[in-house]
Write a structure and sequence with these properties.
A alpha/beta; B alpha+beta; C mainly alpha; A: alpha/beta; Rossmann fold; 6-stranded mixed sheet; 4-stranded antiparallel sheet; 26% helix; globular; C: mainly alpha; 2 domains; two-stranded antiparallel ribbon; 15 helices
Amino acid sequence: MSKVLHGNDLKTFRRGGVHPDDQKLSAAVPIVTLPVPKSVKIPVLQHLGAPAKAVVQRGDKVKVGQVIARHEGAFSANIHSSVSGTIGQIKEEMDSSGFKHLAIHIRTEGDEWLETVDRSETHIEKITMSREDIITRIEDSGIVGMGGAAFPSHAKVALPEGKHIDTLLINGVECEPYLTSDHRLMLEKPKEVITGVRILMKELGVERAIIGIEDNKHDAVTLLSGLLRDDPAIEVQPLVVQYPQGGERQLIQAVLGREVPSRGLPYDVGVIVHNVGTTFAVYEAVQKNKPLIERIVTVTGKNVSKPSNFRARIGTPVMELISAAGGLPEGTGKVVAGGPMMGRAIGDLESPVWKGMSGILLIPEAEARRSQEYRCVRCGKCVEVCPMGLEPYLLMTLAKSGDIKQADHEHVIDCIECGSCSFVCPSNRPILDYIRLGKTKAKSRKS
Amino acid sequence: MNDVVLYTIISLAGIGVFAAVVLYYVSRKFHVTEDERIGRVESVLPGSNCGGCGLPGCHAFAEAVVKAGDLAVLHCPVGGNDVMKNVASVLGVKAVEKDPYIAIVRCSGSFEYRKKTNVYDGSPNCAVAAQLYSGDTGCAYGCLGLGDCVDKCDFEAMYMDPNTGLPVILEDKCTACNACVKACPKDIIQLWPKGKKNQRIYVACLNEEKAGAARKSCAIACSGCAKCAEACRYEAITIDRNLAIIDPEKCKLCAECVDVCDVRNIVTANVTTEKIQQAGEHRRKREERERQKREAEKVATAPASVPPPPTGAPS
Amino acid sequence: MNKPLLVVAPSPHIHADLTVPQIMRGVIIAMVPALIMSIYNFGLGAVYVTLLAVGFCVAAEYSITRYLLKREASIQDGSAVITGMLLAFNVPSNLPWYMILIGSVVAIGIAKLSFGGLGNNPFNPALVGRVFLLLSFPVAMTSWPKAVATWTLDGSTSATPLGILKDGLRTGETVDTLMKQMPSLQDLFFGLHGGSLGEMSGAALLVGLVYMLYRKIITWHIPITMIATVFIMTGIFWLIHPDKFANPIFHILSGGVMLGAIFMATDYVTSPVSHKGMIVFAVGCGVLTVLIRLFGSYPEGVSFAILIMNGFVPLINNYLKPRKYGVNHPRR
């Protein structure tokens, strides 16, 4: 059991959840900055929403930090060059999502940064910018949610009429097995993360922030709560280790006991959630004027010789990170961008690192394939573990048979795609595959 | 003992009579008068309830035609003109002939031509695969090969060819009910006019990428080179987004375009090899004649420019 | 280019390590203590009945799927073995072989495969087989051999404690006097009395329960709720009228309550999927068992109670859904 910190006991969300094997192989490995890659491919769609519009042309010279694609509309984000050099082709390219999107190729020449960027490592604590300037800076710096969903961060400030935020929640849960990028960030840049939290509090105009951290990262809990001893406005909340605690709906329930209404958003219950990685990016953008051009990526897997945490430039080919972690192990069957529960399998190892990629997981061939599927025995385990209180077995049947109306009635849209149902199903049924399909169909049915 | 038997018989009979009376009155009271023509129309329909006409089933179709009173819009693709003639005679209206359609597969990226780049291990369902990946080959437009179309076919008119990984449509069984077209998440299956003597010519590719990228992922991808468009005498072939598209309304099935294609991806149905060969010869002779004619004209009216013939000239 | 192609599949990319064949194996292991106790009690008869029932069930499953339904034989999942064992647990140890055959064919063929096989049967196959036999061969199904470990197939029979109780009360005797003819509660718990194979020893069945809970094969909801319901309900009647009703400990230890609650009512396919539904289902099973025992004409009601509640499962699943996150919940 943990020490009681800030008068809080361990908390967790109320229903469902699973306990996959932790496998945090790289938890004790410090972050290493990767050398600048020879060339990068930067997709113009690295966020939820509309792709950014390229503002450079083939042959243009760019510096590190320069905008190469500008956002169009509120749900989009700027894209910056992560290297200095010459723009090559701008063409459709397979990215780690498995679909082809427009990507800007840049051939690296030197490492020349925009002069406005403060590249020193010194921590600047004092926040001098006004609230409006902070909002603009976050928008200009192309910051998106770095936990994986890549929701444009500046869009979270734009609240509809009548909504009031009272709490900022910082997601340091990292409930996915294997991943350690947020954990390392909290250990190595705790002051920067805390300043980032204060910037976000100023941006949102809230008096209270809570950092939620699962208790398998007890060192981070101790470190951050020690640094925050004299700040009553920011609390650290240790949480029971339970997947999917990092889902924002589960985190809000775990920490505050509030439930985001179905089809609603966290601001409906007065909360905004930001990931630790995002918080750090916000710090760098606001205090150092550094746009989002690199991120921490965990490279891990059972057979990886050196599980690592890298600070890599956006657009670096995935293969370079794997090489830096000791190379592709013999007999790797599957490569996943993100964690094993919600990550996407990558088809092409030349696809680039993007803003939402928290890790690269190499799965050996023996574990890469799904096992034999049996019939549903109605054991109810999927119902038991669903953190949203849905009935996955039923939703799968409805989606498969095409009864989208009934699936919608059973709240298929509320599924957070955490994968607990497929994970636990003793018949190895691809429950989430079909729920996702039903979700897509139910959404298109509405519109 | 006899009493018991007697009472049983009497009470049972009583219940029976009572129930009969109730049923009689209920059926009278709730009787729905339906146009008797609906039943007669339905009896001549195929009764497969496939939904190919756009209505939920054969009864709904019968109701709709009776209500509409004519056959201008409604058509049963499964029954075709024969069934519609019967429907027309039931209703006493004029039959409207429609050209029969058939489903075609507009992808020829078999295993041989389109190499796998990944192994797909998700649910064997095209719709599931399509929303997660652009496919397990380099081509983002091609057939996923998981057979949603075959699953949806009510007429056993399709099967997946294990050698090519592509669906095959059985011509004599396909009723053009549209179910497979709707099932395909990549819109590869389309309805196409069945054609004179069941002959059809179409381009079996939907890859919109430029030539290099398209050929990299599939050896017989259409690159939009426009050779076929130039060869066509009827302007039936247009190039759109690096893709040749044959307009079945304009196509006269002359087959002259077929052998001009570098990758032989202009697919024919029920067109004999001899015809294709003859058409090719014919085209070459014609092109030769046109070339000579043009050269002769060039010599005759040396400086004056002549608009090029609409059929296009070999470059 | 010779590198093996990478696998792509939708998430999740890992799986928990409990699969259907492992679960089936786990259930079989959980039944072993009870089987050992029944062999100890009934000797060769128990072995003979169990082997026959398992053999007939597997054979029925194989031949029906293979030759009648013409599809791949579905015996590798192990569910037919469980059905066979449960059927054996529910019959006397001296049942003739042809009755076991009939029970097995009814259980597998009618109760399971005719509905589409594992996962689709509305009623617990073993219980259907058992009830079919009980109604068809009432005498054979209620002539219990004496609980003496004999390695011969001897013909002497005795009544079950519940049978003694029912008959005694019908002839006007009081519970007190009847209890004197009963085996002691200890004997009931450890399993020295007449009855079906599997319902001998509460202790052995509890060991199975603990094992299944430990392996997370089942949750506590159905077995504990059902046993508690029987205990509380019989307890209330006993407190009201101790002359007419036996004490609750006697009720949960005798007959098939333990067996039913632990192995029959918990059958995945025929029990509700949500915890709420499981509790309602188990309360229903308990209440019906007690009602049949105390006021019905049969001495024992577990089989009927579970089968009746099986029929309500679709209804329970439809109405007792888990509470959905963020639905119909006050906004703070």
